Amino acid sequence: MTRHFYVILNRHAGRGYANTVWHTIKPQLDQLQIAYQVTETKYAGHATLLAEQYAKHHADATTGSQIVLVVGGDGTLNQALNGLKQATVTTPLPLAYIPAGSGNDFARGAQVSRNPSNALKQILTATEPEILDIGHYEETTQQEQRYFVNNVGIGFDAAVVSAANHSDKKSLLNRLHLGNLAYVGQLIKVLGQQTAFPVTVNIGNHRDIFNNAFLVTTSNHPYFGGGVPILPIANVHDGKLSLIIAEKMILPKFIFLFIMMTFGRHLGFKHVHHYQATHLQLTVSSLEYGQVDGEEMGNRFFDIHLSVDHYPFWFAPSRHSK
Question: For the residues 135-149, what does the mean pLDDT come to?
Fold first, then answer.
């Protein structure tokens, strides 16, 4: 079977790293005489439109004959996934991914190599789609819904994302290839500003209420923030979403928690709670920041219903995703 790849390229992902990645893999595609066409994203959300249009134009394609290949970060992957889901075709087009962003957490969770050439080999040697879990949420206060590949966060992590994105120093640091410093600086700032908030968790007939929540993250796989195993119990093959709630604590305890989190040894802490479920509901009655796959959701109330879904990805899984 002849395969054709529709490449969605976000050259600006990873502070321009995606452009370097493309110049690495394009000669390999040409040398191997792989059939492909490439379209560059021009604005925020463009990948969603491109993926949706391509899927609709190839609604009758045989499985594996037409593959959408994203070269960019997790945000670009998120947009492409949502476009493919919006197309609502009978046989969904498989989605391939060469990670070229800053965090690349989905690659870690799905066992896609973060080395561009190795990731390309995984894609070209695949013979059938890999069905992976994805997340879906419906947020009733804003009447919006979206799919996600990584996580949805409310509270501390989302406030850091918002503060960093709106920092006057971010553009300068990005030009100097020091963009991560923007997040480090804002993390310290937000740590002192973020207050505790109430959250209600509903899973089936079970309800828990936390009045002192600080970080509330629902994840599809273990990783967060560029490789931190925030939910080591999560897995893209288990048919479940994983939720972590960390309560507000004094600064020394939080620092120790964060250190232990980098080793995935934090779930047993007294002020840390975790769940796994196919469906769950979170209600937050105070104005809090939210984020989905690193993109801002704004500062608002939340009544959010989260569930697990599935999508065909195109790559040969590897036990080592470096």
Answer: 96
The Cα–Cα gap between 167 and 131 comes to: 38
Domains of the chain: 4-102 (3.40.50.10330), 136-310 (2.60.200.40)
Residue pair 211/196 in contact by the 8 Å Cβ criterion: yes
Q: Closest by alpha carbon to 234, among 218, 250, 248? A: 218
Q: How many CB atoms lie within 10 A of CB 263?
A: 10
Rg of the chain, C-alpha, whole Å: 19
- CA-to-CA distance for 142 and 145, rounded, in angstroms? 9
Q: DSSP per residue over 66-126, as a string? A: EEEEEEE-HHHHHHHHHHHHHH--SSPPPEEEEE-SS--HHHHHHT--SSHHHHHHHHHT-
Q: Could you give the CA distance from residue 149 to residue 163 in angstroms, rounded to a whole number?
A: 23
The answer to pTM > 0.85 is yes
Asked if the model's pLDDT at residue 175 lies above 80, the reply is no
Between helix 17-31 and helix 116-124 the angle, nearest 10°, is: 40
Helix (H, G, I), strand (E, B) or coil at 25: helix
